[in-house]
Design goal:
Length: 299
């Protein structure tokens, strides 16, 4: 298919020595052709993930069940008793956590929560907009990753029952009565933001394996996740080891979920071989001949 955008000289008009600028209509035609070719190429790209509702449906429900069970168990944890509080001593804190903040900062606590959940919410939207043809698979995988992360971190909190740093300072009666005062390990906010960061980095690397943007996404995602995790420590809500554990747990889950959805190597190799034997989905040719601009688009 050829698209021609021509502007010929009027009869009887002498051409001047200098080359005239390309007409605006010709440039618009070139831009439209480029857009069409790009859209066709992106739509025909081989999907990098395998999604089977018969398998992923039960897995998603199981993940949501794990998240609900972990949340209910974590919320049922009794607040710290006065006898337990009396036994807490800063000298018992590991050396790596000894420099922590032992007073809760409500402002930093709120800021870290807004930053964390904002990042968790924006990541799938950006990925879906980048590859709309993969939006369903990306969304389903993201729900699975978050469900597993939520359930796992809540179960660990209920099992470990580590006192939060502010309990070693001068906690208020409200803080003592809160049911999550013994839910320090691991950091839930950190687990979720690093799940999001690892997920986004892995998906972008799979979708655009040769594009430099994958490095920018990975760097930006993990820097943002690290900043949110640092706020949890500065707010007095977690120890350093809490956020390290949350970062490791979240990174593992965020990386693992997209990986298990990749097609088998044999199938991927066959698809790549087929793509190599097939002409490009779209090709553009631009030729300038005097006042004539010819744009050729092969589909």
């Amino acid at each position: 298919m050829n698209i021609h955008a021509d502007r010929t000289a009027k009869p009887g008009v002498r051409r001047r020595g200098r080359r005239r600028p390309l007409p605006r209509r010709s440039l618009c035609a070139a831009l439209v052709a480029t857009s069409i070719a790009t859209a066709v190429s992106a739509t025909d790209a081989h999907p990098p993930y395998r999604f089977d509702p018969r398998v992923d449906g039960p897995l998603t429900l199981a993940g949501l069940g794990l998240a609900a069970g972990g949340f209910l168990w974590s919320e049922s944890t009794a607040p710290i008793f006065a006898t337990e509080l009396a036994t807490l001593s800063v000298s018992d804190i590991p050396a790596l956590d000894g420099g922590g903040v032992f007073e809760l900062s409500p402002s930093l606590d709120t800021a870290s929560t807004v930053a964390s959940y904002g990042m968790v919410a924006l990541a799938p939207i950006g990925l879906a907009l980048a590859r709309w043809d993969q939006a369903f698979a990306i969304g389903a995988m993201y729900v699975q990753a978050l469900a597993v992360a939520l359930g796992t971190k809540d179960l660990l909190k209920a099992l470990v029952r580590r006192p939060r740093p502010f309990l070693y300072g001068s906690p208020s009666a409200e803080q003592l009565a809160a049911g999550d005062s013994l839910n320090s390990f691991p950091s839930g906010h950190t687990t979720l933001v690093f799940t999001s960061a690892a997920f986004a980095s892995t998906v972008v690397a799979d979708l655009y394996p040769d594009a430099p943007v994958r490095h920018l996404v990975a760097a930006g995602s993990f820097v943002a996740a690290g900043a949110a995790a640092s706020l949890r420590v500065l707010a007095g809500a977690h120890f350093l080891t809490d956020v390290i554990a949350g970062a490791a747990l979240g990174s593992l889950i965020g990386w693992l979920v997209p990986v298990v959805h990749r097609p088998p190597r044999a199938a991927a190799a066959g698809a790549a071989a087929g793509a190599a034997d097939t002409p490009d989905a779209a090709a553009i040719g631009v030729r300038v001949n005097g006042p004539r601009l010819v744009v050729s688009v092969s589909l």
